[in-house]
Structure formats: C-alpha cells, structure tokens
C-alpha cells in the first residue's frame, strides 16, 4: 500500500512517499477495481487521523479489550467515504460498536499517473541517524533561537545540527554514526549515472538549510521508527528513509523529502 503526503515544496514543505506491507496493517485484505485492482483516493489527513484515534481509543483504557476494526470503501448519499467499523468490549463487558465515516475522493487513473516523486541528484552522503526522540528534543530546544537550521554530515560518521543568527550560534554534534551503503535506486536519484570521480574526502561535511518546522514534522515519525537513514543532497534536499520496524524485516518504509532553503546571504 502506498501513502503519499504532498505539500508545496517551494514553501519549504515536506513530502512523504511511503510503501507499507499489507500484512503490517491488515489481518484480512480484499480489493477489486477495474484499474488492475488498484484504487487511489485523496483524504484529509486530519479526518483520517481522527478516525484512527477512534479505533485506538477503546484499547487505551485500563480493562478494555483491543478493538477489531474493519475499513471499507463505500458510497453514502452519493459521496465516497472510507468507513471504519470499530468493535470492542467495554470495561463492563458490553460489546461496543462505533462507525466513523471519512470523506474521500476517488482519483482518476490519468491523474494518478501524474503523481511523481521529487527529482533529486545523487546524495553526497548517507548516514544512520541517532534516536529520533533525542533529535526531536534537541530541535525543540533550538526552535526558539531560529526559524532555520542546518543539518550536515560526512562519510566519517559525523552529524551536526546548527542554528546561527546575529545573536546566537549553536552547534550540536554526534560522532561514531554508521554510513550505510545505498544504491542509486534506493536513494531515489533520478539523474544519469555520473562519470567516475576521485574518492571524496570522508571528513568533508555536506549540508542543507531547512525550516525548523519542516524538520520537526519529520521527527514526529519517531513513534514508528527503529532505523532512519538520512541522505543529504548538498544545498538541494534531504531525503530520509524511516523504516517501520527493523530493516531486515521492516513492515514498510516512509520516505521524507525536505527541500533546502537557499541562503541568499
């Protein structure tokens, strides 16, 4: 299953292109359509999130059982909807049924064909990020100091996150991180294979400037990730691969594209 969240990259927006294994979400799954059994819909992320919270809520209270949730595509009053039927047992042992409809729009196949991932050059460096929870704590502390931050990394396992203004300059650094090899297909490069170059200096730092708010949107994925790889395209973008579970047995991967802010100074 593919989930795409696209915003205006020209305004520093974050795009997410994810591939999630069906068995990581559903215990039973059936879909039929005239478009090779594929259905693409657009949905409000806020409305979908509210429905998913409803599905999770019965299991969060002490003494309540986990809920069984059935998701269906339907049409009600000539409007396509995604219906969530949630069955759970209350603390008193009574069966509870909740139905939540989320309005959707079915995309035409010709419009689906126009969906394209952002074009990026070959990344200059790949690095395994430290805990996203710890990163989020650091970035939250930097946020009051500047609206823009710099992320830099090199092939020697070093990572830097910095803010710099007329009033303050702060650098936070990590060392000893892994630099995993990644093929061109995995790194989503859409440029032709470049000619062979001399080996790069492993200590050279490559970086991007980005909005603090954009980076924090990415860091909100920490709840699903055990492994995150950052690929930096110098002064162009940062591509982040967030694996759901361990890489060897990942239930899927969320690919984040954060465009760089051009420093006119």
From TrEMBL:
- A single GO CC term, please? checkpoint clamp complex
Primary localisation category: nucleus
Q: Which UniProt keywords apply?
A: Nucleus
**Cell location:** Nucleus
Does this entry carry the keyword Ribonucleoprotein?
A: no
Annotated spans, Disordered: 181-202
InterPro entries, from UniProt?
A: HUS1, HUS1/Mec3
Q: Which domain of life is it from?
A: Eukaryota
* GO biological process terms on file: double-strand break repair via homologous recombination; meiotic DNA integrity checkpoint signaling; mitotic DNA replication checkpoint signaling; mitotic intra-S DNA damage checkpoint signaling; nucleotide-excision repair; telomere maintenance
Protein family (similarity comment): Belongs to the HUS1 family.
- Protein name per Swiss-Prot or TrEMBL: Checkpoint protein
Name its species: Antrodiella citrinella
């Amino acid at each position: 299953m593919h989930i795409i969240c696209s915003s205006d990259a020209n305004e520093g927006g974050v795009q997410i292109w994810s591939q999630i294994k069906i068995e990581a979400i559903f215990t039973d799954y059936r879909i039929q359509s005239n478009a090779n059994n594929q259905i693409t819909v657009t949905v409000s992320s806020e409305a979908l999130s509210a429905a998913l919270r409803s599905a999770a809520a019965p299991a969060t209270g002490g003494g309540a059982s986990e809920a069984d949730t059935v998701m269906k595509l339907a049409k009600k009053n000539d409007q396509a909807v995604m219906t969530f039927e949630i069955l759970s047992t209350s603390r008193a042992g009574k069966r509870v049924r909740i139905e939540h409809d989320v309005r959707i729009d079915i995309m035409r196949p010709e419009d689906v064909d126009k969906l394209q991932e952002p074009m990026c050059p070959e990344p200059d460096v790949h690095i395994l990020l430290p805990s996203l929870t710890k990163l989020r704590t650091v970035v939250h502390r930097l946020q009051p100091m500047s609206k823009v931050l710099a992320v830099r990394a090199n092939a020697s396992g070093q990572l830097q996150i910095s803010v710099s203004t007329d009033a303050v300059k702060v650098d936070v650094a990590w060392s000893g991180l892994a630099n995993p090899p990644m093929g061109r297909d995995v790194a989503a490069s859409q440029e032709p294979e470049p000619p062979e170059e001399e080996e790069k200096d492993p200590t050279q730092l490559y970086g991007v400037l980005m909005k603090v708010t954009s980076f924090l949107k990415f860091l909100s994925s920490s709840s699903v990730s055990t492994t995150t790889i950052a690929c930096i395209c110098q002064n162009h973008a940062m591509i982040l691969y967030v694996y759901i579970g361990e890489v060897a047995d990942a239930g899927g991967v969320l690919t984040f594209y954060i465009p760089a802010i051009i420093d006119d100074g």
